[in-house]
Specification:
Mean pLDDT of chain B: 95
Largest sheet of chain B: none
Radius of gyration of chain A: 18 Å
Pfam family, one (chain A): ABC_tran
GO molecular function, one term (chain A): ATP binding
Order of helices and strands of chain B: HHHHHHHHHH
Number of helices of chain B: 10
Largest interface: A-B, 27 and 21 residues
Order of helices and strands of chain A: EEEHEHEHHHEHEHEEHH
Low-confidence stretches of chain B: none
Largest sheet of chain A: 6 strands, mixed
CATH superfamily of chain A: P-loop containing nucleotide triphosphate hydrolases
Number of helices of chain A: 9
Membrane topology (chain A): Peripheral membrane protein
Oligomer: heterodimer
Low-confidence stretches of chain A: none
Number of domains of chain B: 1
Strand content of chain A: 15-25%
Distance between the termini of chain A: 40 Å
Helix content of chain B: over 70%
Shape of chain B: globular
Number of strands of chain A: 9
Distance between the termini of chain B: 24 Å
Keywords (chain A): Antibiotic resistance, ATP-binding, Nucleotide-binding, Transport
Shape of chain A: globular
CATH topology of chain A: Rossmann fold
CATH architecture of chain A: 3-Layer(aba) Sandwich
Strand order of the largest sheet of chain A: 5-6-7-3-8-9
Number of strands of chain B: 0
Subcellular location (chain A): Cell membrane
Chain lengths: 245, 248
């Protein structure tokens, strides 16, 4: 059953077309990746499906609802972690989680989230004193504290060290195991290959492919006569680059 | 939603109290300045004919109150809001059912409360340490205080609205802060203010607030001009702030 259905999505800012024609569907319980170069329209796409901006054209249905019309209802059901969304410097970890839990009608148990995300030891720490990885985990916790059906996570692991990235991956899988559908925006191919059931590749505001990572790899192997292609090769081919050998 | 708004206000109050600069400069400083003026400057506690038989300290209480309003409104508030926008705090709230408008409301409430505490402290110090009388025209004083605070908060919101970054908001705040204090009479108090300067001061929100509070102190109801100027800034700056404010 599709949880998110997007077809022919369009959005422009003044003269700039951010999203020209994006279509994909996300099924319940999937980890769905959105890949693409910087400025391809990934973030705009997730902002449109989260109801943070209004689209210029196309249709969007999230859990059967239109984000432009039923935004208030969707904010109860969709947890969003956007790029560069921080917290006040002096807020404590537990304060932030408790506060955000009061925003929702049926919140998750924030104390349990604190444990699950390995933040119990830092519950009284101020946001300003957290490491990059801890900030990201708190950010995920805040996206999950409303007990959402869908979690949208934008460039979650950018700027994290390898160990923190691996921890975050494990976390995303555990989120999915809780029954949450995950939309993951990333430009790390290893991340997408490891985590995502299916991915959409967006280039210059258009979806150029929607498939499983394995299928995209198989296709590029067949088309370019390669033996051991990676998702990165497939991605480069799809976004109009030469594949270096 | 009531719980969310209450929690938001409680958390914003805690954050305000953890910010030593806002507490010291915004809440404590007006009372401390009054103590310094009264005890450290010779002649501040002696009546003089220049001030129609009042003591300088009497004249300075309403001026210090204007300073209390000025610090929270154009220094603390715009920096907070612009920082919240720059760090994406408002953007994150926009993804939740609560939304960023309520955070704006909580900030206004917390800074408003901070201003009132600063005012109460300064009046208490004036009364207890120097025997300064309470305002004789109480309703007029309260109207001047509330309307003056509201007008200056509207100016603060406008600064937060037009400043692209937190540093810019702080900078613009400072550019507004010192002229405002000047027009409020910090350097040329009450009867000592030259006529031309007073006419300019009449037309600034803090100058109007300062003079309206001074009038109420000596028993007169604030003048229609001062009330109109404060109301005018409240409406105009408020409308412009609402027009130009961006959540990200």
């Amino acid at each position: 059953m599709p949880v998110i259905e997007i077809s022919n999505l369009r959005k422009r800012y003044g003269e700039t077309v951010a999203v020209a024609d994006v279509s994909f569907t996300v099924d319940s319980g999937e980890i769905f990746g959105i890949l693409g170069p910087n400025g391809a329209g990934k973030t705009t796409t997730v902002e449109l499906l989260s109801g943070l901006r209004r689209r210029d054209g196309g249709t969007v249905r999230v859990l059967g609802k239109d984000p432009d019309r039923d935004g208030a209802e969707l904010r109860e059901l969709v947890g969003v972690q956007l790029q560069e969304s921080e917290l006040p410097e002096r807020i404590r970890v537990s304060e932030a989680l408790e506060l955000y839990s009061t925003f929702y009608r049926e919140p998750a148990d924030w104390r349990e989230l604190l444990d699950v995300l390995g933040l119990s030891g830092r519950r009284n720490a101020r946001f300003g004193t957290l490491s990059g990885g801890q900030r990201q985990r708190l950010s995920i916790a805040l996206a999950l504290v409303g007990d959402p059906q869908v979690a949208v996570l934008d460039e979650l692991t950018t700027g994290l060290d390898p160990a923190a990235r691996r921890d975050t991956w494990a976390l995303i899988e555990s989120v999915r195991n809780r029954g949450v559908t995950v939309v993951l925006v990333t430009h790390f191919m290893d991340e997408a290959e490891r985590l995502c059931d299916r991915v959409a590749v967006i280039d210059a505001g258009r979806t150029v492919a929607v498939d499983t990572p394995a299928a995209l790899v198989a296709k590029v192997q067949a088309e370019h006569g390669l033996d051991r292609a990676t998702l990165e090769d497939a991605y480069l081919a799809l976004t109009g680059h030469e594949i270096g050998v | 939603m009531t719980t969310a708004v209450t929690r938001l206000t409680i958390v914003e109050s805690k954050l305000f109290l953890r910010d030593t600069t806002s507490v010291v400069m915004g809440v404590a400083f007006p009372a401390v300045l009054l103590l310094l003026l009264g005890f450290a400057i010779p002649g501040f506690r002696e009546a003089t004919d220049d001030l129609d038989g009042l003591r300088p300290i009497d004249i300075y209480v309403p001026i210090v109150l204007a300073m209390a309003i000025c610090t929270t409104s154009v220094s603390v508030l715009p920096t907070y809001l612009a920082t919240y926008r720059e760090r994406g705090v408002l953007r994150r709230l926009a993804t939740t059912p609560v939304g960023p408008v309520r955070l704006l409301g909580a900030q206004l409430l917390v800074n408003g409360a901070g201003t009132l505490v600063a005012v109460a402290l300064a009046v208490a110090v004036g009364t207890a340490a120097f025997g300064v009388d309470l305002p004789r025209q109480v309703p007029g004083f309260l109207i001047a205080l509330v309307l003056g605070t509201a007008a200056m908060f509207a100016v603060g919101l406008l600064i937060a609205a037009v400043a692209p970054r937190a540093k810019t908001a702080t900078g613009i705040g400072m550019l507004v802060y010192f002229p405002m204090l000047f027009f409020a009479g910090v350097w040329t108090p009450g009867p000592v203010m030259p006529d031309g300067l007073r006419r300019a001061s009449d037309l600034t929100p803090l100058g109007a607030a300062s003079q309206a509070m001074q009038d109420a102190w000596s028993g007169a109801f604030p003048s229609a001009l001062h009330l109109a100027v404060m109301a005018g800034y409240l409406l105009l700056a408020g409308a412009l702030a609402a027009r130009f404010f961006r959540w990200e």
